[in-house]
Amino acid sequence: MSTTTHDAPVEDDVHHEEDTNYLNHESGIWSWLTTKDHKRIGVLYCISLAAVFFAAGVLALFMRAELSAPGETIMGNETYNQVFTMHGILMVFLFLVPSIPAILGNFVLPLQIGAKDVAFPKLNLASWYVYMAGAILTITALLTGGVDTGWTFYTPYSSTTGGGVLWMTAAIFVAGFASIFTGINFIVTVHKMRAPGMTWNRLPLFIWGLYATSIVQVLATPVIGITMMLLILEQTMQIGIFDPALGGDPVLFQHFFWFYSHPAVYIMILPAFGILSELIATFSRSRIFGYRAIALSSVAIAMLGFLVWGHHMFVSGQSAISSIVFSLITYLIGIPSGIKVFNWVATLYKGSIWLQTPMLYALSFLFLFTIGGFTGIMVGVLAVDVHLHDTYYVVAHFHYVMMGGSVVALLGGMHYWWPKITGRMYNETLAKIAAALVFVGFNLTFFPQLVLGSRGMPRRYANYADRFAGLHELSTYGSWVLGAGLFLILGYALWSLAYGEDAPANPWGATTLEWTNVAAIPDHHNFKRTPLVTRGPYDFHLADEVFGGGDGTALGDDVPRIPEPAPSAPTEENTAESASA
Amino acid sequence: MGDFWLPEAASTMAPEVDSLFNFVTVVSTILLVGVVAAMLWFIYRYRRQNPGERPAPVEESKLLEVSWIVIPTILVLLVFNWGFKSFITQKTIPPDAYEIRVQARQWSWSFEYPNGVTSDTMYVPANEPVKTTMTSSSVLHSFFVPAFRVKQDVLPNRYSSVWFEATKKGTFDVFCTEYCGLDHSEMDAAVKVVSRERFDQWLKQAATPKDIPLPRLGEQLYSQQGCQGCHSLDGSDMVGPTWKGLYGKTGHEMSDGSTVTADENYLRTSILQAGDKVVQGYQNVMPSYASLSEKEVAGLVAFIKEQSDKAPPQN
Question: Both B288 and B218 in a single domain?
């Protein structure tokens, strides 16, 4: 790592327009494909994941169109089965699992802790290439007959159906390594590369969320890799593991699968919790209420998350005793999530609340995730889950958590960090309209599904009884509203890239390092001088470098807030830090 | 409110599950309204009125934090305990339960009674505990009767069971709720709850007499064994080829490119080992019916012959 930037004149911080930044210091496709800059890798991931989200989202619209009326509307059973399978696989394995850590984590984590990059920049780039290899294998699976097993690959169906199943399992095996690489990188970076003064108690909560996520990624992902490998071995070498025809046990597969896939839910939601803390703090300008409770509950959830997989299997044929134990532990994990919601609401108390788009997403999250949490409590109740298992109630529940939670938080985070990533502002009015469309469309799509499920509508049905028709139709209309909102976002995001106003360095008046100590578009090396951290991440009352010394009344909303140069660490420490890193 | 959320309740288990469902829904709604109301009030009350505002930090309250750890913990433990007790009831099969064997296959159900009667519709006596002993011929399925609030996966390599006591006479849906391939959404059946007298009457009537003509035996098996789920008699295309005009067909094309003549031996093989000769354009999904007796196979063949007016094939 270079230390030459320490000598850069102070003025460079102010006159950033003339400066080079991470986007323009090198140019050409090759400079992007070989970059070891965590910010550029975040952007690469952003483009890949946007393509996956787009494809999987369009599949969802097709599914809703097919389900708009009973009987066959636009596709037959075989196509429908492939469509819902690919929607699930793409959304879970290739979008939600990497999403927040790979895009925003990569971009923001080193900036927030005052580091120049992640600990292993080459491994970070390798992660993106491994992910792309997984994506290519996924396309191969589609070309070799497609996959119609559902994203869960339950045996023995997945052993017998043929088509592209082996390619798809290979894709998940490979893409898992991308996740592991990112996890290892983040854990080491958080431990070893924090700026002077950035103690664990001063870590922004987004970092705590990413840190907890990374632990789960490193510990859980190998299990899905092994499971997929066993599936492949079983089918290519006829070794009986899961297929009863070969002497295997299909319930064993479910244990292995959920041993990863339940913790994977926390891989998806923990970083979303982190984003939410950032948004709520910045847009209410107050310290997160119960900072420690939120930070430690993330780690508690990451640990307990490994002990609840059996709650997916209450009617699978596992023993009643196992079901009872898994149900009990499931409740224990519900409590830390509840604590977070209460803490975020309490953070609003006596704050100064600014309803910009990222905050609208944060508030949507509070509503949607709370419904997701309560319906989660419902499906954790043993006797009730027997009725609700594998119905639309479960479908609606996990969409409230995964989409209403993770995706809404990701959208909030993308709007929040968009100016830092692109150097451009987005259109606030259009963004607010889109946020409203997403919120209304989401509820219109998934609330009817909760009712459908409790009334007995099974999931993964291409066709259904007439009495479910009304609510299905409503849900399809909802999907159009939701789709319109998401397409609107895509539209103004592209517009902003080309024509958006230049963003100031700190448009939200935030107090974490990526806003206070980094140029509007970050420098290739992030910081001109290693920052010295002297306060907590949300100590707005101490953040004089953002608000000026007085009460800050001179700063209007429209005035770009260019931070005062923050104190930097003594030079000896800088040198020591660079040497150790 | 239960009427809005939940389907008709028709078993002894249903009211218990429903009251628990309603309890969780009501408590969740109250808490959700509380959280959202607080959120909306704070947003209004503490809206930013001056861009430079820097509110003084709020002191954390230990009491508040402890209360929102302890109260939810008490609530969820209450719910867990309630759910646990009902679950034990669901899992404890009464020793005097009437047993019905359930066979699941892609994509139909068949129900077998102690006297040997098999049926594609499940008849059960009202107000008596009934136990199912279920197994699958190939992949996983799941037996779900929404009106009874029971569900249990059906596995190929072991028996699984549910029990229920129907409290209302009528016809209710059986759904398959474990994804099982192409026609998963078509894998439904009806459960008919009738009085004990009607049930006994049906059971006696449905029992196959030993001395009926072979085609009539085949006709009964056609519906009892679930053949009608995949093979039509009117020429329409379903999961499998229609039986109309099948017998006597020459140059019948197989998926491996060979052609066969649809004679008695072909029909017999296709019933016992369907995978040996798969007709061009169809999936290899039909399970083996090797459990049928020789007479039953002969009955089915005779019935299939009746569906065709072609001349018997010449060897």
Answer: yes
- Burial of A298 from C-beta contacts in 10 A (0-12 / 13-18 / 19+): buried
Q: For residue A26, with 0-12 CB atoms within 10 Å meaning exposed, 13-18 middle and 19 or more buried, which class applies?
A: middle
pLDDT tens digits for range A141-162: 999 988 999 999 998 898 888 8
Which residues on chain B are in Cβ contact (under 8 Å) with A285?
48, 53-55
Is the predicted pLDDT of residue A229 greater than 80, yes or no? yes
CA distance B274 to chain A (A): 15
pLDDT at residue number A216: 94
Does residue B120 sit in the same domain as residue B165? Answer: yes
Domains delineated in chain A: 37-580 (1.20.210.10)
Whole-number pLDDT of residue B216: 85
CB of B22 within 8 Å of a chain A CB? The answer is: no
The pLDDT mean for chain B works out to 89
B85 and B173 fall within a common domain: no
- What is the spatial distance between Cα A574 and Cα B281, in angstroms, rounded to a whole number? 72
Residue numbers in A near B185 (CB within 8 A): 77, 458, 460-464
**Among A2-6, A241-245, B184-188, the range of highest mean pLDDT:** B184-188
- Mark residue B28 as left, alpha or beta (left: phi above 0; alpha: psi -120 to 50; beta: remaining): alpha
pLDDT, tens digit (0-9, with 9 covering 90-100), for A354-397: 999 999 999 999 999 999 999 999 999 999 999 999 999 999 99
B11 & B83 share domain: yes
**B315, part of any domain:** no
Both B104 and B199 in a single domain? yes
- The confidence score (pLDDT) of residue A11 equals 42
| Final residue before a domain boundary, out of B46, B68, B91 | B91
What CATH number is attached to the domain comprising B128?
Answer: 2.60.40.420
Nearest residue in chain B measured CA to CA from A374: B28
> 3-class SS at B104?
strand
Distance CA A81, CA A279 (A): 38
Whether residues B299 and B230 share a domain: the answer is: yes
Indicate if B50 and B129 belong to the same structural domain: no
Q: Say whether A320 and B91 touch across the interface (CB within 8 A).
A: yes
On the question of pLDDT at A555 being above 50, the answer is no
Cβ within 8 Å, pair A459-B177? yes
Task: Looking at A286-407, list the stretches that DSSP marks H as alpha helix, in order from N- to C-terminal side.
Answer: 291-304, 320-348, 357-380, 382-388, 392-401
Average pLDDT for A419-433: 95
Q: Is A367–B36 a contact, with Cβ atoms under 8 angstroms apart?
A: yes
| Predicted model pTM | 0.86
CA distance A519 to A15: 9
Q: In what order do the strands lie in the sheet with B98-105?
A: B118-119, B108-112, B98-105, B129-136, B160-165
In a domain, B311, yes or no: no
Shortest CA gap B216–chain A (Å): 32
B314 assigned to some structural domain = no
Choosing from B180, B206, B232, the residue where a domain stops is B206
pLDDT of residue B210: 64
CATH no. for residue B66? 1.10.287.90
Structural domains of chain B, count: 3
How far is B128 from B97, CA to CA, in rounded Å?
7
Residue A41: which H helix or E strand, with range? helix A38-66
Q: Has residue B313 been placed in a domain?
A: no
Could you give the CA distance from residue B271 to residue B256 in angstroms, rounded to a whole number?
18
> Largest alpha-carbon pair distance within chain A?
76
Tracing tokens 């959280």 back to the chain, one arrives at B35
Range of the domain at B24: 2-91
Tell me the CATH number at B250: 1.10.760.10
Measured between CB atoms, which of A317, A380, A463 is closest to B186? A463
pLDDT score, position A326: 93
Average pLDDT over residues A520-541: 90
